[in-house]
C-alpha cells in the first residue's frame, strides 16, 4: 500500500490542497482531481507534448511529472489563458490564423507558445519552430502554428487582441 501525500498547488491562480498517491501523474491530477480537462493526454511517454503545462513558468510534460513534484508550485494550464470571456492573444491568433485544426495538440502548443513569448516577445520563425519541436501536430504542418505564434507576439507587443 502506497502512503498518500498531502500537496498544495496553485493552479491558474487558485490554491488547491489535496491528498494524492505519490505515483499520480500531474496530468491525471489536473484532469481527474481538479476537473481541468483542457490538458490533453496523448502518448503518456513525453513524446507528443499534448500535456504541456507551465510549472513556475517553465513548460513541462505533465504526463512525466508527478503531482507531488508540483507541491508548492504555480501550475498554469490552458484554462488559465483567457480572462473571463476575453481570449488570450495566443488563443485569438490561433483562431484567426488557423493555428488549430483538430485541436488535440492545441492546449500543449498554446502553453509552450506562452513560455516562448514570455521569454522572447519578438521571436523569429526559426526560433519558434525550434521551440515547438517537442510538440507534435499531425494536421497543420506547423506553418499556421508558427504564423499564429508570431501574430500573437505582435498582438502582445502592441497591447491588443485585434
Describe the structure.
The protein has 162 residues and is α+β, with helices and mostly antiparallel strands. It has helices at residues 26-33, 89-96, 106-119, 125-131, 143-158; strands spanning 5-11, 14-20, 52-55, 58-61, 74-76. A five-stranded mixed beta sheet has the order 2-1-5-3-4, sandwiched between helices. α2 packs across α5. It is globular.
Tell me the layout of helices and strands.
Blueprint: E1 5-11, E2 14-20, H1 26-33, E3 52-55, E4 58-61, E5 74-76, H2 89-96, H3 106-119, H4 125-131, H5 143-158
Parallel strand pairs: 1-5
Antiparallel strand pairs: 1-2, 3-4, 3-5
Helix pairs in contact: 2-5
Largest sheet: 5 strands, mixed
- Major β-sheet strand ordering: 2-1-5-3-4
Order of helices and strands: EEHEEEHHHH
Look at the helices and sheets and give the structural class: alpha+beta
Looking at how many chains there are and whether they match, the oligomeric state comes to single chain
Percentage of residues in strands: 15-25%
Question: What integer value in Å does the Rg equal?
Answer: 16 Å
Mean pLDDT rating: 95
Separation of termini? 54 Å
User: What overall form do the CA principal axes indicate?
Assistant: globular
Helix tally equals 5
Count of β-strands:
5
Low-confidence stretches: none
Amino acid at each position: 500500500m502506497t502512503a498518500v501525500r498531502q500537496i498544495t498547488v496553485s493552479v491558474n491562480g487558485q490554491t488547491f490542497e489535496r491528498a494524492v498517491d505519490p505515483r499520480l501523474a500531474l496530468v491525471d491530477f489536473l484532469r481527474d482531481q481538479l476537473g481541468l480537462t483542457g490538458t490533453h493526454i496523448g502518448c503518456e511517454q513525453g513524446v507528443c507534448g499534448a500535456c504541456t503545462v507551465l510549472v513556475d513558468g517553465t513548460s513541462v510534460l505533465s504526463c512525466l511529472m508527478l503531482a507531488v513534484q508540483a507541491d508548492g508550485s504555480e501550475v498554469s494550464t490552458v484554462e488559465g489563458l483567457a480572462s473571463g470571456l476575453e481570449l488570450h492573444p495566443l488563443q485569438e491568433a490561433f483562431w484567426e490564423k488557423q493555428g488549430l485544426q483538430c485541436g488535440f495538440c492545441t492546449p500543449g502548443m498554446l502553453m509552450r507558445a506562452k513560455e516562448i513569448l514570455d521569454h522572447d516577445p519578438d521571436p523569429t520563425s526559426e526560433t519558434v519552430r525550434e521551440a515547438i519541436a517537442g510538440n507534435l501536430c499531425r494536421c497543420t504542418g506547423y506553418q499556421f502554428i508558427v504564423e499564429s505564434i508570431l501574430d500573437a507576439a505582435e498582438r502582445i507587443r502592441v497591447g491588443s487582441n485585434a
